[in-house]
Each structure stands twice: as structure tokens, then as C-alpha cells.
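Sequence in, structure out.
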Amino acid sequence: MLQPRIYFRQAIRQCRNLQYLERRPYATEVTPAATTAPDYMASLEGKTGHHGDEVRLLRYKPRTPGLRHLIRVDNDHLYMGRPHLPLTFPRKGNHIGGRNHTGRITCRHRGGGHKRRIRIVDFHRMEAGKHRVERIEYDPGRSAHIALLSRPKQRDGKHDKSQQSVGHGVTQLSQIHSAHSDGIARVKELPGDRDYSYIIAPQGMRAGELVESFRKGVSEEILSELGGDTADAGMIASKTAWRGNCLPLHMIPTGTIIYNIGLYRNKGAQLCRAGGTFGVVVNKNEETEKTARFVNVKLQSGEVRRISRDACATIGVSSNKGHNRTQLGKAGRSRRLGIRPTVRGVAMNSVDHPHGGGRGKSKGNVHPRSIWGQLTKGGFKTRKHKNVFVVSARPRTQGRKNKKAVN
């Protein structure tokens, strides 16, 4: 005879001793992660606005197997609502599944995942004037956080066609990028009649702050405060080189921490855009007029690169520097992010991988190779041309040297 089904929730409500299970919080421990900031970070706390932001990691009670190894970053300052829709477009048919325009897989281990909307980020920041930070948002398409900026609407009427309706698919992607080429949306129905744009937020930025772009030069208001055109470069930097401001590299003092670094004049940012990345202005090469055309910037990898003095850079460190300390905890979260499983070459057949086939876990007595037959170990060089803009290359084979030193 079938017994009546008893729900677990009803049993908890009947038992007074188990009522605390419904109110038990998930997070149990907040661990401040140790941050290894460079020595010159302390000297720039006042200039760039860093106040010793620590990464807080959340660990959870193992009520389920998926929570046992879950580690997240405590980002309680993020905006919980939807993004600004005029600055987004749906991610449909745009390299989904790691395939190119012919339908062939060019990037493995990608596919599926939750539906997304791509945020249009302003990497040029050509608009001068003060911008107010409305909120800090999460962007599923990048590891860093983004900030929604606003400023009073311009009455020039140059971008009236930016909100026209377009089609779907690939046509929609190209038309939206042409309409929002500068990363700024102008909508008449927005509250306060303001222009909005997205930028990559620096570490420590919060809603209500004011940022400014000086790519077109220093404003007359700042020059008048400093005594006109005869103002010293250091005095100008004291007014402009603040966290979140975008400047040309020749206006940034030596030793300043920067991110969102461009490579060419009138181009957008290309380097140090991921979460927690930054570079340091090492030398401006002001000895001669010929050498002053480039500024030396040291990246986190140890590489020193020559960059045009008129290229853009933003003061500070890219936000969400603790994203690499997280643990997903289970395979399902990885699948929701659009990451598919990675299969070992030894587990494949011989037609699928150079390591495949054979009996047992043997790879056929061949040197380690990729799925395309490329050698992967032993210092096999694949770079054909030398980058002339690299002053000193990043140090390589450090792990091997450290092992020899220990032994």
C-alpha cells in the first residue's frame, strides 16, 4: 500500500527545534585575501585615490556539495538591477559556440551558457568635461566591473540617429557599433536629460564620484587656477592625475599606476583592461625630441613597452582584482558561463589527437603535442617576428630557474 508523501518543509514547520534551518544563512566566513601590492602603490594613495581596498572572500556552509568549495568575492557595492539598455545589444549569433562566420570551430571549449547582453564600453573617452558616476555594474563579458557615467546633454544634435530601430542578427551588430562608435548613448526619455556611457571602473570607485577626460587638453578653468599657460607640468598633474581620469601618456607623471592603456593616437584602450591589471609609467624619454615621441610603460608581466606619447591611459588599477581568487565549486557554474568540458588527449582516439589511441594511459611514446600537432614543451618557439616596440621582453623560464635554484 502506498504511503502518503510527506514534504520536508512541512516536517520542519511541525518541529520547533528545526525551525532555525530555514533562517540559516549561507555565508559563514569572510576571509580578507592577502594582496601583494607593489611598494610604489603606497606613495600614490593620495594621488590616485587608493585607500587600501582589500579583497573580501565569501565562503559558504557546505549544505550542498556545490557550496563546499564555492568561494566568491564580496562585491556588495555593485548595482543589482538591469543594465542601461540603450548601451547594450543581445549576444545572438556573434561567435557563439566558438565558431567563425563559416561555422567552423576556431575556439574550443565554448558553447551554451546563460543568455547575455553585450555592453558597449567607451574605450576612447574623447568627451571632455566632468562625468558623474551613477553606479558600478557587473559585466558578464569581462572580468572587470564597469561604471555608468552621466553628464549634461549636449544641444548640438549630432547623434540624433543613434536610437533608430535596426534589424536583427549580424546587421544589427554592425549598425549598433556605427551608431555608438564613441560608446555614448543619447536618449531623450532618460531622466535628467543626460548623456550616458560605460567605462571600465578602477578599483575603489563608487557611485557619486566625478571623473574627467583630458584627451583634448586641459580646460581653461584649470589653467587659470594654476596661473595660465606658464603652469608647471607637476602642478597640472596635481589637478588632473586622479583616479578614473583619462589622460595622454605625456601628461601622466613618472611612476603613476595606470590601466586602459592605448597604443596609438586617437585610438581606444587596448592594454590592461582585465580585472586587477595595471601598468606603470617608467620613463618619458624627454632627452631629445625624437625619443620624446614614446613613453616607456612597464606591464605586470615585467615587459617594458614603448607607447606613443599621445595614447590614452586611465589613472588607477582595473576593478575586481580578486576575480582570480574565486572558485566555482561545481561544473554547472562553469557551464552557465559558457565553458564546455576539456577532454584529455590521452582519452581520445588516435584520429582525434596525437596522444590518442593505444592500450591504457599511453600516449604512444611521442613528445607532448597539441591537438594540431604543435610541440608544447621544451622551449619550442612559435614567434616569427620581433616586436620593435618592446624595450625589454618579459622574463621567461622563471619557473625552471627557480626549481634549479631550490635543488
